[in-house]
Hints:
heterodimer, A: 8 strands, 46% helix, elongated, disordered C terminus, B: mainly alpha, 4 helices
Amino acid sequence: xxxxxxxxxxxxxxxxxxxxxxxxxxxxxxxxxxxxxxxxxxxxxxxxxxxxxxxxxxxxxxxxxxxxxxxxxxxxxxxxxxxxxxxxxxxxxxxxxxxxxxxxxxxxxxxxxxxxxxxxxxxxxxxxxxxxxxxxxxxxxxxxxxxxxxxxxxxxxxxxxxxxxxxxxxxxxxxxxxxxxxxxxxxxxxxxxxxxxxxxxxxxxxxxxxxxxxxxxxxxxxxxxxxxxxxxxxxxxxxxxxxxxxxxxxxxxxxxxxxxxxxxxxxxxxxxxxxxxxxxxxxxxxxxxxxxxxxxxxxxxxxx
Amino acid sequence: xxxxxxxxxxxxxxxxxxxxxxxxxxxxxxxxxxxxxxxxxxxxxxxxxxxxxxxxxxxxxxxxxxxxxxxxxxxxxxxxxxxxxxxxxxxxxxxxxxxxxxxxxxxxxx
Lengths: 304, 110
């Protein structure tokens, strides 16, 4: 205790927090009270026109500045917009290039096929016939005919949520089961959303997207299968794929519709990757290629 | 009264003209806007208290904005810019809050 205890003005118990209590208890500018007191002391002090004009000019400027600041804060920063435009342009450019390249591939493979047929027609008509016979099942050429369309669509619950809810989305495994079921039911050709399935097509998930042959597809997924619609439908329903579809529909709310179509058009892949070759002479040796394409497995992935 | 008219004119002009803010001032904009809000709420409360004064309002508005920007500038130079910004926002935020509470008491008597 100080020796002058009790003499001076009483010390507030929370004097050490005067800054905080100042902020909390007197949020109004003390100037307003001072001005009010001054006006009370001199009630007839005149307000000059210059005073008013100065106030007006300053407040207009302040309002302008604050509005400008607010507008500037609400606008996305210029660099972000620039980067976005740049990326958008790049995407558009690359997409155009990819489309052009795809067109070139299609044209060139058409030429190749024509040339191949020309050469083979003279040299080996038997091989040509076999080639043309195999072109359909191998998925090289476009095919059309009656068939079955299985349409899978994401459950409504999958949308709207911030986190992608994979349980309510169509996943790669679902498409794999359906496709395997269709092959087993006797489908002659299958395409998903216009991407033809061949013996080497993979159906995979990448995040929430399903990749079919590295092409990203999104819901709804239309699995078109060529063949006798009635047989396909019966066999599909009887197999394990039918049970899987029923579970998808009942437990996860995924949309499943199976319709018979009188005419389906499936595109061809238009190109054959050479994976195995041998010289036609008797001394021929097999090249150390990775293996023979066109084997029995219809696709990669799980078996039903 | 004339101060509020001037402010309203300025806001309308700002919305119509959409002036661009120099990029050097960009870091100080958020704090300046918060300071302006504080002065605005202070003025509103003073009006309701019946002690509003044009000159005090303009001076507090101007000094609030300039001081807040200055503190942030100083903090940036010293390497504690974000901490000082937080301090300014906390103090101004408390003031805005209690002024708004006082205004609410005035308006609703509750």
